[in-house]
Every structure is written in C-alpha cells, then in structure tokens.
Amino acid sequence: MSVHYNAFISYRHAEVDSRVASEVQHRLEHFHVPAAIRKKTGMGKIERIFRDKE
Known about the structure:
By secondary structure, this protein is of the alpha+beta class.
C-alpha cells in the first residue's frame, strides 16, 4: 500500500525546532489554497502532512 503526503516536515529535534515544526504544520493545515491552484490541481487544501517526530 502506497502512502501519499501533500507535505513532509523534517527538522532537528531540539525544543525550539519542535515548536517551529508544529507551527508550520498547523499553518499548512489551515492554508487557503489560491483559486488558480485549486482549479489547476483540484486540491482545495493540504490534507496529509507528515512531521518526523522520531
């Protein structure tokens, strides 16, 4: 089974980097995809985001 992600976040696992990665993930999850891109790709939002936590 193939797993597909719309975004992949990789970072150093220091405390400050973890906070930044979390904020980046949150903002991507709530990002408003511009109409021209939605029309071209059919993607209305960034649905699957992988954040490397290990």
